[in-house]
Amino acid sequence: MNNSSSRFLIGLIWGTLISALLWTALMISVVGWIRYLRA
User: Fold this and answer.
1) Distances from the Cα of 10 to the Cα of 1, 19, 22, 34, angstroms
2) What kind and span of H or E run contains 2?
3) How far apart are CA 27 and CA 34, in angstroms?
């Protein structure tokens, strides 16, 4: 494995992790807002 492909794989893994964390935070905030508005 050369340097460019490993760097691309690391960037792809980090991008997937960051996007998953952002989606989780978004879903938690949406659920929190729904519970807050219904309370």
Assistant:
1) 13, 14, 18, 36
2) none
3) 11
Tell the residue number behind the tokens 């760097």, with chain if given. 7
Length of the chain measured in residues = 39
Give the alpha-carbon dihedral of 16, 17, 22, 24, to 10 degrees. 110
- 26, exposed or middle or buried, with CB in 10 Å at 0-12, 13-18, 19+? exposed
Q: How do residues 4-38 score in pLDDT, each as one tens digit?
A: 899 999 999 999 999 999 999 999 999 999 999 99
Note if the pTM is more than 0.70: no
